[in-house]
Amino acid sequence: MDTVSYPHKEVIEFINSSLIPLRARSDAQPLATDFNLKWTPTLIILDTEGKEHHRTVGFLSPEELIPSLLLGIAKVHFDLNAFKEALSYMEKILSDFPKSSMAPEAIYLKGVCQYKDTKNPKGLKEAYEQLQAKYPENEWTKRAYPYRLL
């Protein structure tokens, strides 16, 4: 990622404006043990308390790295019950990176956030319908399958 993704202008701008990056070798102790680092690159999104919310392992192109980081930030907000904030990050993934491999999970989590925020199951069913139409074989479509009954 050092030669392709990290030097990419948009990646640099995104990381500098949205995250507090920390780079550590996969064998650096105690981080390697504390965060179960087994391979490089491993990207972990933590909250302000140091709790992990999202992890990716392996190379990501710039076009996949930014949506992965956005998804990680969305998951922090989701896990902290800040559903409107989580929704804004998922909507950014879907509007700016609709072809990324993160889009199906963003659709799924968007439906879950809408439900958790409003208690209206409409968002869950819409998420399933959108996933079924765009990504019929995706794992997130399969996970959303029960929502078709709502």
From TrEMBL:
SUPFAM superfamilies given in the database record: Thioredoxin-like (SSF52833), TPR-like (SSF48452)
InterPro entries: Thioredoxin-like_sf (IPR036249), TPR-like_helical_dom_sf (IPR011990), TPR_rpt (IPR019734)
UniProt xrefs under Pfam families: TPR_6
Gene3D superfamilies referenced in this protein's UniProt entry, alphabetically: Glutaredoxin (3.40.30.10), Tetratricopeptide repeat domain (1.25.40.10)
Stated name of the protein: Thioredoxin-like fold domain-containing protein
Organism: Candidatus Brocadia sapporoensis
